[in-house]
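Hey, resending since the last one bounced:
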Amino acid sequence: MQGTRALQMMAGLTFLIFLYFISDLFKLLTLHWILNTFMSSIFILIIIIFQDDIRKALAHIGRAPFTRLQTQFSYGIEEVVKAASYLAERKIGALIVFERENSLKEFLEGSTLLDSKISEELLISIFNPRSPLHDGAVIISKDKVLAAGVILPLSTNPDIAKDLGTRHRAAIGITEITDAVAIVVSEETGYISIAVSGKINRDITPATLRKILSQLLGFESEAPWWKRVKLEYEERT
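The structure tokens again:
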């Protein structure tokens, strides 16, 4: 209702309701009778007055969260998976972070704000070694690429494998302090890795990445993502 005439109408209705109780309190019989007649039809009046807003609200509820969010997430996931696959084949390093419940806005200082639609082409161009933004992380919020060139805190966990570089440590670091999901493409091996809750799984396939992201970003799954990674590893070995 903010920024629409509906807010003014609601304020007017609130005043009339307040006046109704005042007239009853001070025994203003005529005014009370008029307002009482008005109040008896208030629900019909509300529907008439706010019909446009109610229609928009019902349409919004019909789309969200199921249809709209499912479409946004599935599209964004697919574009990220395709970009990660392309970058991995060419051993181009990348770090992509999905924001979930915890806001990542505090890490945007010094980054380049984009607020752009997620696309494979955009992600590939950002991580192109000739791009000035390729060394930082990309943050995705809902259905948008929020920012690029983001500097993330590195994990100080002493148990992290010694062969993990800065991107992997940044992926682990951001998932240690938030509920974000971080995807890393290694420029040395071309492996795709995913970090969640301070833990990282390395060398996963694009298909597994798609399944894990689908679960973590809101889709149901029969088995937890870490079990599927384990099963896939056992099958391959």
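The beta strands are 94-99, 112-117, 137-141, 144-150, 181-185, 192-196, 199-201.

Sorry for the duplicate.
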